[in-house]
Amino acid sequence: MDIDEGIGGSGGDAGSGGVGGEGGVGGMGGAGGMGGAGGTGGTGGAGGGGGADATPVDTDCVADMGPPEVSSVGMPGKLRLIGCVVTPDKAFAGEVLIESDTLTCVGPSCEDAPGAADATVVKTHGVILPGMIDTHNHILFDIFDESDWSPSKVYGNHDQWPNEPRYQAMVDAKQYLNGEGTPNLDPGFGCEMNKYGEMKGLVAGTTSIAGAANPIDKTCYGSLARTIDQKGNDFPADKVQVSTLFPPSSGDTVCSNFLVDKTDAYVVHCGEGVDETAKKEFTTLGTSTNPDGCLYAAETTIVHGTAFGQDEFVVMADKGMSLVWSPRSNVFLYGGGSDLTKTTDVPLALSLGINVALAPDWSLGGSQNLLDELRFANKVDNEAFGDVISPAMLVRMVTVNAAKALGLSDVLGSLEVGKKADVTVIAGDASVPFHTVLAARPKDVSLVVVNGVPLYGDAVLAALGPAMPGCEALDICGAAKFACVAETGGTTTNKFGQTWTDITQILSSELETYDGMNLTEWEFAPLAPLVKCE
């Protein structure tokens, strides 16, 4: 969804990654039993079973419930995880070996692999999957939620709701904190806002986020989850370009970048809404550049496409374009919060071979994190689509499909030797691994590793985190966790040394200060919660 549109604020083009067609929709699957609601002490079920994909995903994993355990302690920087390993095509009882920032073994056993002898061994008793990738977020808005603004009516397209006075007041608050508004708070607290949003993702197993933070390329963005659309992404170059406004102002530059290999993925809002105005944006995308149609390319990833139908999706499929689906935000804005049909026709897109990723958009009416979005997408599939998207395909949408949409398939998105060591472990019944992922909440995430470094997980695994400057204890919906937020080498400029406590105290205080200025009739403190315990 567009941000700050018509109000003169953030949301310009950022950063600078291939795309491929992916997946299809198989036959109708049988309806699965509905899971329990899951409060702070339990996990809700994943809902319906989902339809079959073109190729069923095999698994030989067995139920192996229980907390993770460190069975032997080895050298720092080497970690051997044992559990149910999820790859794009199957899930199997096996192991993953991490050495430094790289996966060096993925298979039934890594015991005899070079480097395994002195690795720390963790019996996860859970599901080991690639670190999830959030392909679309407005991360600086994630300090807010729907209590700060909800649409006053059902809208037809993204140019309408930004005119609501309360929405504009919320944008003013965001801009003030980020040092881009009036009165000007220079340099602002964009570093803390970005870290808050990344932490929301991290505790839910998300290791990379395309967050469209502005101004671009601040040094402080290079912490916690990968800021995948900025230079601080721990890769040699940033080749993911993002446009949060439509029509984009940089189309010609993007097309030139395609030709010289400067941009591998262009992630652009288009077709957000349910009316003809939104639908016509696809034509505008093709005519707003010189030459016409150069953005109809395999490097282009469309965010939303809610208004698209057969004609638009046929072109996307023919050109190898990707699609990012954000159902909760769509329903929030265009379906009154309850009409599940007011979202992108994902079954049609999949049937044409379009690569589809799933993302939460923002926590202001969208999901708090990718786990929330997975559950909501499953609900939409079960209740509105006729249960045609399998749990395995939904998991692909936040892993391998997401990596393709960002042009990063060679380094992220799947557990394969040579790829970056971004790994998430989720507790639960490993005999049904994909259903377990769909049912999971942040309290069920037992370990998150980013670039080979354990940054979040169950308190019993806290010793895996960096010794310096140390990690913090967190309570996530009654579950004891650790989080390693502060980093060595911190300065007043890069703010790497900030703890989670520092970040939340600063943002809470500044929001209260803003409210105290009485610039608007509405108040925006306190901060939106890190997680919502349901």
TrEMBL record:
The protein's superkingdom reads Bacteria
* Matching Pfam families: Amidohydro_1 (PF01979)
Question: Which organism encodes this protein?
Answer: Polyangium jinanense
Does the record's keyword annotation contain Hydrolase?
yes
Asked if the keyword ATP-binding belongs to this entry, the reply reads no
Q: Where is this region: Disordered?
A: 1-21
| Domain Amidohydrolase-related, residue spans | 341-453
Citing just one GO molecular function, the answer is:
hydrolase activity, acting on carbon-nitrogen (but not peptide) bonds
Q: Spell out the protein name for this chain.
A: Amidohydrolase family protein
Q: Which UniProt keywords apply?
A: Hydrolase
